[in-house]
Amino acid sequence: MTAPSLSKPVARFAALDALRGFAILTMVLSGAVPYGILPSWMYHCQVPPPNHKFDPSIPGITWVDLVFPFFLFCLGAAIPFALQRRMEKGLSQIQAMGIVFKRGFLLFVFAIYQPHFSPFNLKTDPDWLRWVYALVGFGLLFPMMMRLPESLPKAWHWAIRVFGWGAAIWLVSRFQYKSEPASFSLYRSNIILMLLTVSAVFGSLAWIFTRTNHLLRLGILGFVLAHRLAGGSEGWVKWISDLVSVPKVWHLDYTHYLFIVIPGSIAGDFMLEWLRQKGENEKLTWSRNRYALLAGIGVLLTLVELVGLKGRWIGATVVASVVLTIAALWIVRTPGCETERFLRTLIRWGTYWLLLGLAFEPYEGGIKKDPNTMSYFFVTTGLALFLVVTFTILLDLWKVRFGTHLLVANGQNPMIAYVGMGNLIEPVLNLTGVGPVLEKITPGPWLGTLRGFLLTLLLAWVVAQFTRLKIYWRT
Question: Quick count: other Cβ atoms within 10 Å of Cβ 453?
Fold first, then answer.
């Protein structure tokens, strides 16, 4: 397949924004629910309550284990959106690589910056000062990362950036921390953001060199698999892996998440092609009930995998998954327009990745997020594709806005959403005294869960206001 040719400007793909927003907000929610007292399906499967001690022998996944791979899938799908049009306008591969490395550097900085301004890591006297520093850290990210107006003179751009970066560096050099080392350290990093950094850089490079050849891009995964299998054994593969990795900062093993990112980038190519080719007044040929069944299958498949794989009903899960994917393939068998052909393509790829993941399920002791397994990569990729279909039907075809606009708005501003709880919502609540009162009136497991949900909803609304005002952090 050749890469999509974008002869006209392409609008944002609302379904992709919604899935990204769903991922980031459920990631925030997973950290806002009470610790240790809820059922095990409310936490990462391998760190069950009440002690949350990591146990890599426990197979299965929960909803919490879906949020990171969904975000990675969206990262991969966004790569063609970020680079394709520029390359069609004459951007060379070398220039595109420069953009990728710049983005990677900013993500790397963000991965180091976030834990250094986290109020839960800071050691201050008096204690309340850590909440103030957290708010300052949040505020400094605007001059550091915000997309500045093009109308603003370049000199002002430089002045704003220098102020933001300079103030952040000065403060971090003076902070003290609860854990060792007590001062600034590259080893104090956010592992999630570091994984995103590696995934963004390597996934983008893979797309640049294979943007007209999906088969070649998939071939890269063969080398990733080779590293996964041989990287732990003595030999030249392990030697190179150890040589290029930086202990306690990043490791070449992080590239294994390309098993999600690369399929996501292929899906992103399909999304771009559909946005270019679909007509403004395109006539859909399927009935509304047919679309409703297709949208429902995406949700039902997700529930089947979560319940079946967590409960270890593997046989029943495989059978139910095969039945549902066959039903989806039957529904999309006769497309009559570009949109329906696009949905058929996503369903076919989603079916392949999901069933491949289930075929890998017995390997590596069953599906797990930590340590990640081949089954985990492919099952979550398949589910992401089915949910993109669901969101496409709801947002792009049926124009459903109620209950979805917050997902879309947060999906367009994920970095603000990611740090907004710890560096904005919680500091404000604790400095005003509202936080302790809220905790006191919402004791216990389910009231505490309600509190976490409401705080996440508050964060979603705040981020949506930034998005409405076109204030974005870009990396």
Answer: 13
In a domain, 8, yes or no: no
Six-digit token string for 355: 């069933």
Question: Does 1 reside within a domain?
Answer: no
Distance CA 379, CA 60 (A): 12
Q: Which two tokens stand for residue 235?
A: 């030999």
In a domain, residue 474? The reply is no
Going by the DSSP 8-state scheme, the letter that residue 394 receives in this structure is I
Cα–Cα distance between 196 and 200 in angstroms, integer?
Answer: 6
pLDDT over 90 at 36, yes or no: no
Q: Which pair of structure tokens corresponds to residue 281?
A: 């007044």
Does the structure show a pLDDT above 70 at 25?
Answer: yes
User: How many domains are contained in the chain?
Assistant: 1
Answer yes or no: is 33 within a domain.
yes
Any residues with CB less than 8 A from the CB of 472 and at least 6 apart, and which? 146, 147, 412, 413, 416, 466
170-210: pLDDT as tens digits: 999 999 999 999 999 989 999 999 999 999 999 999 999 99
> Please, what is the average pLDDT of the chain?
94
For residue 149, cis peptide bond before it (omega within 30 degrees of 0): no
Residue tagged 């300079």 (tokens): 166
Q: Beta-carbon neighbour count of residue 432 at 10 Å? A: 11
**Cβ atoms of residues 374 and 356 within 8 Å:** no
Residue 53 tokens read as: 């001690």
Tell me how far apart the alpha carbons of residues 61 and 304 are, in angstroms, rounded to a whole number: 11
User: What residues make up the domain containing 360?
Assistant: 14-468
